[in-house]
Design goal:
The complex is a heterotrimer. Chain B is α/β, with parallel strands linked by helices. Chain B has eleven helices and 14 strands. In chain B, the strands form three sheets. In chain B, strands 3-2-4-5-7-6-12 form a seven-stranded mixed β-sheet, with helices on both faces. A five-stranded mixed β-sheet of chain B has the order 9-11-10-13-14, sandwiched between helices. In chain B, helix 1 (6-20) runs parallel beside helix 6 (150-162), helix 3 runs parallel beside helix 4 (86-103) and helix 7 packs across helix 11. In chain C, the strands form two sheets. A five-stranded parallel β-sheet of chain C has the order 1-2-3-7-6, sandwiched between helices. Chain C has a two-stranded antiparallel sheet with strand order 4-5. Chain C is globular. Classes of the chains: A alpha/beta, B alpha/beta, C alpha/beta. Chains B and C meet through helix 3, helix 4, helix 8 and helix 9 of B and helix 5, helix 6 and helix 11 of C.
């Protein structure tokens, strides 16, 4: 059987056509599900296209330079080489996704429908959240969920303390997904909840891989510019953080649980030590990874990480979370950078397209409420930073409007600080060459086994407290 | 429609009642010769003579006498100058007026009206600025109304005088000089019916007396943020128009209850419990309560302002509900 | 200055006296039967018996017409019977029966009958005073020929509303009679420990109204004094204060364990029992046979009243819509959900 490679929804509702700018595989190449096989441009913002399944690359239907409608087939993948070859003359229809049936939470509701008992529209009992914590939802949200048969466990709460409100259930319904299919399975044992975090691999097969962890409200595509260069020399792994990109949406009670999912994922790999690069929220996760599994981290690069101070621009976080249209997203994106041209209309459209799923936005809203309540960083990884032993670089834009660059001063003495002038919260986008150079330097010297710090120098490790 | 002051609207109701029904009489401290300290009874003595009486400062006895006078064929309207003095009247209300309708049933009627005014805002201090709404609204067998517009002041006072049961009319010292259209004709306003002062879809601001004006101001500010607040003027505190409340909460799913009585065990607490009883499944957030801080009312302006509820506190409560 | 109540009104007629005697005997019979039923555990709550005080309530109300008003205390059985209420319906109310004057809702302390102008028993000490003054105000405003009598005790005489009421009634010349039934005890405390003056009637001077002290165990004396005060009130001359001296023979209530009243006092007052005093006067006038016949009649009335009331059904509870806190029915929690969703 043959499966089509399509652009999916990259263009979102704002794009008609995309331009194919790169093919990374050719006919006959073996591909694995999730591999980046092509890059398309949506109004000048590059978007990667992944293989939808394992198999062998068949014909390329849209060569580099062609403009194709959103959703069009770019190429075909066969189950094996013969299949792929046959596919040249075949035009198979992709199989429609099989909907997951709605969970029957009221399976026994009608057991005792006596004359005086009001059968009601649906059972009102609400299951507990999968992790044993009580599921907090407003009465109106519970009633609406019961009546529309939405499983509240898959709804991300955006109310205070993560309470599920009516609007959250409505968002799920507006997304049009049948109950149980959309949203956030938080339950262990559900197919969605158990799905592993999404990771994209590129670059050569050998070498110490570079793991890239994106920031809050982003996904692994934000590394596009950097990844292209790094992948020339190093294996590159780009992880979608939980509740981001293609990773499952789960409910977390604290940062520790959130980072724990990433750490567990990395622990399951057989890649050996990694050069870990984390941006913003991904930076805090990277630090947690280095703290808990030091043997898995050869070097650590933190780009404007969160968790090193209390200040954060809550308005930007909230604005990013809440934006449901390009028009409302774009102003917030501009806050992230110094030069607004970096996040022009096209970038905003692409970013919005990646955030088109309301369930994803809801999940991130809940995450933001947990991580950054009331415009304050509830995450504190400063103690981890003080005891980190691995080679460490910190990169920060001095014009960062989201997380103040002075948080970098919490770094221990052995760390290298790179404070970039006229750069905002996205150094890897605003100054990719500089960031690349810092990363390559670190990789080079740590791969030589030179620079792994074994003990912190007493005099240099207390800069943060002096500064405070 | 003529635009008149709240105090004039009350005066018009009293004048009309005294004119139409010889059983009606009006008594209270400083109300006859002087016309009342808030001038609500101005001119009535001249028009109706002995049926408008100045009294000694004897709130306990006057209230008790008004109750039995009502029971024996008259329709007394007693003015208690400040709501803060209502504790003096409470035996007559809670042990006398409220019980006979039940104990003695159809044998007696108690068409008795107690008018008083409460509330802060004029620097009258801890013994002259309270709103003790819950003291009276608590009592089975009493009716309690709290008009905020001049039209309702006239219509509800008239309805109270015509009602066969004891009715407490809660006025507010800051309302007497407010103006509003009052329809001609002198029709009573039905007791037990709330009023939608301003329609909205996002959050219900359920308020009483002058707090309705603060809720309307809060609604204006919320509108600047795109939030459409519905303001419900309860008008009657007891019997409560629970259907109006549930209808609004069913629409907005968010409720802020506002009352100038103290919060703890106060009237706002009753509203909150009522919503829980009758509209729990409509709630998308906990009911927010805005009430006077649980402490004596201070004298100096910044202190009093900090204690009495206002539009800003209502806005904050609405935003908390909508968070 | 203060007028007085002399010359006293005419003595009651013999027929009136016989009627009063019968009503006192009925009241006494009721009290004694209630005491027996209480001991048998067949009554509910405390009952405040007026044994030995019957002459006050009966003598005062005998003066009044059906249109006149009277208010009384938690110890008001003599007033109930004196004002002409049906003993059977009074007993039924005391026993909490459906056939009582108030269907068992009021009980023995708060019984009321508008048709008799008996409005009514009042168990807040002092509250019967402004209650009667308010009725008198109503009478004055409606220019009626009625009077109101407030029966209250020596304990009530110490309340603030007693002062307020007397001042107001005198100020406005209300047609009210303040009948102070001084039985010497406010619960367990003698009135001498509660009042700065021994003779409570002297307070009338402070309100510019007549005040007299009379023998409250002599029903004729009570009748005469109240009649004079009522006539004064009807003439529009305002209120009067009558202090009727009597004594509480059976404790504060059926719950009272006693021990604070001296045997000497009890014996002295027992010798002056109002029925004894009345009987002696009547025997002199109409002979013992006639008096015994009246007393036998009273005993039959009491026996019939209790027999009937005890056989009467207990009341059935019904809610009281006029007390309901809600003007409009709200949806019951959890019901009517489908419609609400449609609206959303």
């Amino acid at each position: 059987m043959v499966t089509a490679i399509t652009t999916g929804a990259v263009g979102g509702e704002y794009m008609d056509h995309v331009l194919v700018v790169e093919w990374r595989v050719g006919p006959g190449d073996a591909v694995r599900q999730g591999d980046v096989v092509a890059v398309v441009e949506t109004a000048k913002a590059a978007t990667e296209v992944e293989a939808p399944c394992d198999g062998v690359m068949g014909p390329i239907l849209a060569p580099v330079g062609t403009e194709v409608p959103v959703g069009a087939r770019l190429g075909l993948i066969g189950a094996d080489a013969a299949d792929a070859a046959d596919a040249a003359g075949d035009q198979p229809t992709p199989e429609p996704p099989t909907p997951v049936p709605a969970p029957e939470i009221n399976a026994d509701a009608g057991a005792d429908a006596g004359a005086e008992s009001d059968p009601g529209p649906a059972d009102r009992r609400v299951p507990e959240a999968g992790d044993g914590a009580r599921l907090v939802a407003s009465p109106a949200a519970r009633r609406m969920a019961a009546e529309t048969r939405v499983d509240l466990r898959v709804v991300a709460g955006t109310g205070p303390g993560g309470r599920i409100k009516r609007r959250d259930v409505m968002a799920i319904l507006r997304a049009g997904a049948p109950a149980g299919e959309a949203g956030l399975p938080a339950v262990a044992g559900s197919p969605e909840g158990d799905r592993p975090l999404a990771v994209r691999r590129s670059g050569p097969a050998n070498g110490t891989p570079v793991l890239l962890l994106h920031g809050f409200a982003g996904d692994s595509t934000v590394w596009h510019a950097l990844e292209r260069e790094l992948a020339r020399r190093h294996p590159v792994l780009r992880l979608d953080l939980p509740c981001h990109g293609r990773s499952p949406r789960r409910r977390y009670r604290c940062f520790r649980d959130f980072a724990g999912d990433v750490i567990a994922t990395v622990a399951g790999w057989d890649t050996g030590p990694l050069h870990v690069v984390g941006h913003s929220l991904g930076g805090a996760v990277a630090l947690a990874l280095a703290d808990q599994r030091p043997q898995a981290v050869r070097s650590l690069s933190l780009i404007a990480p969160v968790g090193l101070g209390s200040e954060i621009d809550g308005g930007i976080i909230e604005g990013l979370c809440r934006a449901s249209r390009v028009e409302s997203l774009e102003p917030w994106l501009r806050h992230l950078v110094v030069d607004p041209a970096r996040v022009g209309d096209a970038y905003a459209r692409a970013a919005m397209a990646a955030r088109a799923d309301p369930a994803l936005r809801l999940a991130q809203g809940a995450l933001a409420a947990m991580l950054f309540p009331d415009g304050t960083q509830a995450v504190n990884v400063t103690p981890l930073l003080r005891r980190v032993r691995v080679s460490l670089r910190m990169i920060w834009g001095r014009a960062d409007a989201v997380v103040p660059w002075r948080h970098a001063l919490a770094a221990p003495g052995h760390a290298g600080l790179h404070l970039l002038p006229a750069v905002g919260h996205l150094p890897h986008l605003e100054a990719p060459e500089t960031v690349l150079r810092v990363l390559e330097d670190l990789i080079t010297c740590t791969d030589d086994g030179v620079s792994t710090v074994t003990s912190a120098t007493p005099d240099g490790s207390l800069l943060s407290t002096q500064e405070a | 429609m003529p635009v008149i002051r709240y105090a004039e609207a009350l005066n018009a109701a009293l004048y009309q009642a005294l004119s139409e029904d010889p059983r009606v009489f009006v008594l209270g401290e400083d109300i006859a010769q002087y016309g009342g300290v808030f001038k609500v009874t101005k001119g009535l003595r001249d028009a109706f003579g002995d049926r408008v009486r100045d009294t000694p400062i004897s709130e306990q006895t006057l209230t008790a006498m008004a109750v039995t006078a009502a029971m024996t064929g008259t329709r007394p309207v007693l003015e208690i100058m400040y709501a803060d003095f209502m504790p003096l009247t409470l035996d007559a209300l809670v042990n006398q007026a409220s019980v006979y309708g039940y104990l003695w049933g159809d044998q007696v009627e108690l068409p008795f009206v107690l008018r008083t005014q409460g509330g802060g805002g004029l620097g009258t201090g801890a013994q002259h600025a309270k709103s003790l709404d819950s003291f009276v609204a608590h009592i089975p067998g009493l009716k309690v109304v709290a008009p905020v517009t001049p039209a309702d002041a006239r219509g509800l006072l008239l309805a109270a005088i015509q009602d066969p049961a004891p009715v407490v009319v809660l006025e507010h010292k800051l309302l007497y000089n407010t103006r509003g259209e009052v329809p001609d004709g002198g029709a009573p306003v039905e007791i037990g019916r709330a009023r939608v002062a301003r329609p909205g879809r996002d959050v219900s601001l359920i308020a009483t007396s002058r707090m309705v004006l603060e809720a309307e101001a809060a609604a204006d500010r919320l509108a600047e943020s795109g939030i459409e607040a519905e303001v419900i003027d309860l008008r009657t505190l007891r019997p409560l128009d629970v259907a109006a409340i549930t209808a609004s909460v069913a629409k907005t799913h968010h409720a802020v209850v506002i009352n100038e009585d103290w919060g703890f065990c106060g009237y706002a607490a009753e509203l909150s419990a009522t919503i829980m009883d009758h509209a729990f499944d409509d709630l998308d957030a906990p009911v927010e309560r805005v009430a006077t801080r649980d402490m004596p009312i201070p004298y100096a302006q910044p202190l009093e302002d900090a204690v009495i509820p206002n539009a800003a506190r209502i806005v904050h409560a609405a935003l908390r509900a909508l968070a | 200055m203060s007028a007085d109540l002399t010359p006293l009104a005419n003595r009651p007629s013999i027929d009136d006296h016989l009627t009063m005697h019968r009503r006192m005997a009925i009241t006494r019979g009721i009290e004694q039967e209630l005491g027996a039923l209480h001991k048998a555990g067949r009554t509910r709550g405390p009952i405040h018996r007026c044994d030995g005080q019957e002459a006050v309530g009966v003598g005062a109300t005998a003066v009044l017409t059906a249109d006149d008003y009277v208010t009384t205390t938690h110890r008001g059985h003599a007033v109930y019977i004196g004002k002409g209420l049906d003993p059977r319906k009074v007993v039924a109310e005391i026993l909490g029966r459906e056939t009582g004057y108030n269907g068992g809702r009021a009980g023995h302390m708060l019984l009321g009958s508008a048709a008799h102008g008996m409005l009514g028993g009042n168990a807040i000490v002092g509250a019967s005073i402004p209650a009667a003054a308010g009725m008198a105000l109503s009478v004055q405003l409606r220019r009626q020929d009625r009077v109101a009598v407030a029966v209250f005790g020596d304990g009530a005489a110490q309340t603030g509303i007693c002062h307020e009421s007397m001042n107001l009634a005198a100020l406005w010349r209300l047609p009210v009679v303040f009948l102070l039934e001084n039985n010497e005890y406010g619960l367990t405390v003698p009135y001498t420990a509660q009042s700065a003056v021994r003779d409570l009637h002297v307070r009338a001077a402070g309100y510019d109204m007549p005040g007299v002290q009379i023998d409250g165990n002599d029903v004729v004396a009570v009748h005469q004094a109240v009649a004079a005060a009522v006539q004064r009130a009807r003439r529009g001359e305002g209120p009067s204060l009558i202090e009727a001296r009597t004594y509480r023979m059976e404790g504060f209530s059926t719950s009272d364990v006693g021990g604070y009243q001296s045997e000497a006092d009890l014996a002295r007052w027992r010798a002056r029992d109002p029925l004894t005093v009345s009987r002696a006067a009547l025997v002199e006038s109409v002979g013992a046979d006639r008096v015994e016949a009246v007393e036998a009649e009273a005993a039959e009335i009491v026996a019939a009243a209790f027999a009937a009331a005890l056989a009467d059904p207990p009341p059935r509870f019904a809610p009281h819509p006029a007390s309901a806190p809600y003007a409009t029915p709200g949806p019951v929690r959890g019901a009517a959900r489908g419609a609400a969703l449609g609206a959303a």
